[in-house]
Structure formats: structure tokens, C-alpha cells
Amino acid sequence: MAEVRRALAILSAASLTLRANPTGGSLNLAILPAFGMHWLAPRLAGFAQEHPEVTVNLSTRLHPFDFATSAFDAAIHYGRQDWPGVDYLKLMDEEILAVAAPSLLKSPLTTPEAILSHPLLQLESRTGDWGRWLAHHGHPGARPTGMLFDQFATMMQGAIHGLGIALLPLFLIQRELAEGRLIPAFGAPIRALGSYYLVWPKARAPRAPLTSFRNWAATQTT
């Protein structure tokens, strides 16, 4: 009976807390590492100021997963609207730029095909990016290979240390470009195939913290 009374007391206290602060609670959000660090993290302080009642818990996931078997309320997704069973809020398109360290390239290349005479860096999940980049610049059909990385952060460090030329999202390398640690290898940024989205499961009624976060995120879209 004592355990039952304790359980009832806990439930009663939780009920009182929810009635006093019905929009509070935690939000479990799956993020992509580079986007989470360079786009989301600088903005989260603003969300915390607007919604101090919500605690945002962040965890890294690189690929889509089944919300039905996870504790996540929402996730950051890169690509197209191809995640089954979710709703989408588009956060931003992505632009990518070919960059290299000044130790590898003293100045930008004069032709796009000159890229092929240098070592190339690429993401495991985007091995077609260099082929699309070359096609954009008038050289279709090529599918060059290069050193593979599983995350943008490590690929960026590889580029900074002169391992090769990398195609990197513009939002990720603004500081490195401004400080001269990376320079454009050729041309202007081009539009990537995918975009970044906030996604959440259609089959699950959204909790108040998710609604607050979703409404706030809609004001941050670019």
C-alpha cells in the first residue's frame, strides 16, 4: 500500500506540474552533426529564451529511422521528402562550394576539369557530388573517386590540412573562408540536390514541446 500511495503521489505531482505549465517538458531531437553544430546550435539559445519550459535533448542520427521504435519526437533530415510516414518543415536549401587549403592551391583553378588533377575528398553518403558538380560546369558523365569521409566535420579538417579538394556546404565553411584557411577551388557555390527539413511522425499526436519547437523553427527558415 505504501508503494501505491507513493506512485499516486508522484502521478498527482506530475498532473499538477502539467496543469501549471501545460506546454513544458522535453523534446528529443535527432540531429545531423554538421547542421546541428553550425546551423541549429547558434539558434537554440533564442528558442530557450522564448520557451524556457522546454528542454531540448539532442542526439546524432545520420540516417532515417523508424519513429515507432524510437523515443525521438522529431529529427533533422537532409535530402528530399523521402522519409516515409513523416510530416516536413523545410528549414533551408543547401549550397556547396569546391574548396581547398592554400597549401594545396595557391589560387583558384582556371577550368573545372583541372579539379581532376588533384586529390578529391567526398562524403560516403554523397559519392555522386563530384560528378554532378562537373556536369553543372559542362562536363557530364564523369564520376571521379576520392578519399571517403563519413561526416562533413572530418572532411573539412582533411581539406584544411591539404588532403584534397572538398565539396562542402557553404553554411559550414563561412569562418574558414573568412580566415583564409580554405579558398574556393573553382567557381561559385552551386545548389545541392537536397534540403534540410524538420520531420516528425504523422502517426503520433504532437506533444506541446514539439509544437513549440516546430512553430519556432518556422521562423528560422532560410
Automatic annotation (TrEMBL):
One of its GO terms (biological process) is DNA-templated transcription. This is Glycine cleavage system transcriptional activator. It holds the Pfam family LysR_substrate. The lineage of its organism: unclassified sequences, metagenomes, ecological metagenomes. It comes from mine drainage metagenome. Residues 22-219 form the LysR substrate-binding domain. Belongs to the LysR transcriptional regulatory family. GO terms for molecular function: DNA-binding transcription factor activity; sequence-specific DNA binding.
